[in-house]
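Dear colleague,

Thank you for sharing your sequence with our group. We've completed the structure prediction you requested, and as agreed, I am returning the results in plain text so they can be pasted directly into your records. Please verify that the sequence below matches your submission; if there's any discrepancy, let me know and we will rerun it promptly.
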Amino acid sequence: MNLIGARIIEKIRQKITEMNADPIWRDTIMDYETKLAEEREYGEEKGILSATVNAIKKIIRRNRSYGVSDSKTLEDLTEDYHDSVSRDQIEQMMKEA
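Please find the predicted structure tokens below.
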């Protein structure tokens, strides 16, 4: 590394040290990181719910094609997915399918 590159790197390190010592800057960065983590978690939850809904709709269509009664399908889906969606939501999906 040449002398100019070393000086640039040293200036960057000094600036980082100054910024890390600033409590307002540190709080701003921590708030930003917290918001990013919350958004990521929300996105993951939304993605999981979307996948669950798609799976339920697929099961409804498949069960109907096999001649399984809607009441049996509703009973099974409510038992299997009660922790993700409500019985009313499953009934609505069955109406839409």
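Summary note from our side: DSSP finds four helices and no strands in the chain.

Kind regards,
the structure core
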